[in-house]
């Protein structure tokens, strides 16, 4: 059988009511009228992308994709189906599924419609085509070495891996960046486009990136978050200067130092007071 998920040059054998029968190496595939934008003559050769339809029949399209077997490219998420996976557009009429087995455990950080992933094509155990996200090893061959001048500069990149420890991105310039979990307020989605600030250019040419604003900018945001939390909890929260850093991060997604800076700002403004290890709204 001709390999599905590949682009093949086939010969038009004959025209039928629904389209054209193509042939190569004595194997036939159907090219539906909807899958080509021109009339084709018998014996004409045409480049097509091969896949199988729902009945398992070998099918062709003249709309050639950007992604084929063993070659990688970016594909946009077009549909998210809980408990199944995410369908991506590879540039042809057939959208490809990224199985939930190749996505994060928690669906909250699955790609949303419009996010993009770096994928290739592969097959499941039943021989059906799937889109497969690139591994760290594959992406390592794609990245460039980042220059030292990027320190403190803004960068934009796509998230290609995310977990509790942090997220890895590929920037628009093909630099690899890592966002530690302490440098973000929430875990980004796989495939999400994020903008951050370079806080370190490492010796191996990769970047450490922060999604948090500079301290002087974040203090106001953190103070607002604390005020909102107070208002939602009858004007009292069981946190103060001596609270455990992990408890603070678990609730406010900020460091203890950032929390204390925000508390200091609010106390200076006369909006809160601290008593017995708790903080009260004035």
TrEMBL record:
One GO MF term attached to the UniProt entry: nucleic acid binding
Cross-referenced Pfam families: CvfB_1st, CvfB_2nd, S1_2, WHD_CvfB
Protein name, UniProt field: S1 motif domain-containing protein
Record-annotated S1 motif domain positions: 152-212
PANTHER family hit by this protein: CONSERVED VIRULENCE FACTOR B
PROSITE patterns attached to this UniProt entry: S1 (PS50126)
InterPro entries xrefs: CvfB_fam, CvfB_S1_2nd, CvfB_S1_3rd, CvfB_S1_st, CvfB_WH, NA-bd_OB-fold, S1_domain, WH-like_DNA-bd_sf
Coiled-coil segments: none
Lineage top rank: taxon: Bacteria
Protein family per UniProt: Belongs to the CvfB family.
